């Protein structure tokens, strides 16, 4: 059942989302060669608590970290370790904040910059194009998240933009409603799995996390190891993740993690 939020509740989520966006920005700014993932996780948790929030992911049963850090072929749910980031790594950072009873969820993928200026390789140019595609797909998907449209309009927009560039949308992982719980109804796939008119109607007061989860190679994914969390591309290709929490409003979509 979809939980419709009041104006007051959306405003609380907007406050929490602002905190989340600020923190994720600081974490991404801290990413450089030699920094290890656990350092980023500890840094993010300290910032969240200083700003009056709680790490939403730590409220998920069995998960002990503030961030999910997914490098290169890791799709989602990468558990932070002592691994040091290296030049050229493609790193997705996913974070959630619990604030005054409500969750917001956000992620972004970046390339670890080189410490010294060097000419780009063809592979680096392709990675840049890959990341820009994910950003564009999220931006355009948000634009169609309006009252009267359906979840399918979001899904179709993401799928068309990603696949037009020769990449694939992951089928096994999707966006979701968000609010009192980190994961709520409705499901928000990044691909069309049924006719648009059969997908949920977008109504004012809905709050959803739109996610673009996509790979440079095929869409198949697998659990990488025995930690029960880390999901990787089955073919070893690079993966990307872009996500924002939004509210469906009568006047148009409102990005809460801004």
Fold topology:
Layout: H1 7-30, H2 37-50, E1 54-55, E2 67-71, E3 74-76, E4 90-99, E5 102-111, H3 122-143, H4 151-164, E6 168-169, E7 175-177, E8 184-188, E9 207-215, E10 221-223, E11 231-233, E12 239-247, E13 254-255
Helix pairs in contact: 1-2, 3-4
What fraction, in percent, of the residue positions are helical? 25-40%
**Tally of extended strands?**
13
The number of helical runs is 4
The protein's oligomeric status is: single chain
Mean pLDDT: 96
In N-to-C order, the SSE pattern is HHEEEEEHHEEEEEEEE
Radius of gyration: 17 Å
Which regions are unreliable across 5 or more consecutive residues at pLDDT < 50?
Answer: none
Task: Explain this structure.
It is a single chain. This protein is of the alpha+beta class. The protein has a single domain (7-114, 121-255), classed as Alpha-Beta Complex (Creatine Amidinohydrolase), CATH 3.90.230. 29% of the residues lie in helices and 26% in strands. It has four helices and 13 strands. The chain has helices spanning 7-30, 37-50, 122-143, 151-164; strands at 54-55, 67-71, 74-76, 90-99, 102-111, 168-169, 175-177, 184-188, 207-215, 221-223, 231-233, 239-247, 254-255. The strands form three sheets. Strands 6, 7, 8, 9, 12 and 13 form a six-stranded antiparallel β-sheet that branches.
């Amino acid at each position: 059942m979809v939980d419709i939020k009041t104006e007051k509740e959306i405003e609380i989520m907007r406050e929490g989302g602002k905190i989340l966006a600020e923190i994720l920005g600081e974490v991404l700014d801290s990413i450089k060669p030699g920094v290890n993932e656990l350092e980023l996780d500890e840094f993010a948790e300290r910032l969240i608590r200083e700003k009056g929030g709680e790490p939403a992911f730590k409220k998920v049963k069995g998960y002990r970290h503030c961030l999910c850090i997914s490098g290169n072929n890791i799709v989602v749910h990468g558990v932070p370790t002592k691994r040091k980031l290296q030049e050229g790594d493609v790193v997705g950072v996913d974070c959630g904040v619990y604030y005054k009873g409500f969750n917001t969820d956000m992620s972004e993928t970046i390339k670890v910059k080189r410490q010294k200026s060097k000419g780009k390789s063809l592979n680096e140019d392709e990675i840049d194009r890959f990341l820009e595609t994910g950003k564009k797909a999220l931006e355009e998907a948000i634009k169609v998240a309006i009252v009267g449209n359906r979840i399918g309009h979001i899904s179709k927009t993401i799928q068309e933009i990603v696949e037009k560039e020769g990449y694939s949308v992951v089928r096994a992982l999707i966006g979701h409603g968000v609010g009192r719980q980190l994961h709520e109804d409705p499901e928000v796939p990044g691909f069309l799995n049924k006719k648009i008119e059969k997908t949920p109607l977008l109504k004012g007061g809905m709050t959803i996390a739109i996610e673009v989860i996509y790979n440079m190679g095929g869409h198949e994914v697998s659990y990488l190891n025995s930690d029960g969390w880390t999901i990787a591309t089955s073919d070893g290709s690079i993966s990307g993740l872009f996500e924002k929490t939004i509210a469906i409003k009568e006047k148009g979509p409102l990005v809460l993690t801004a």
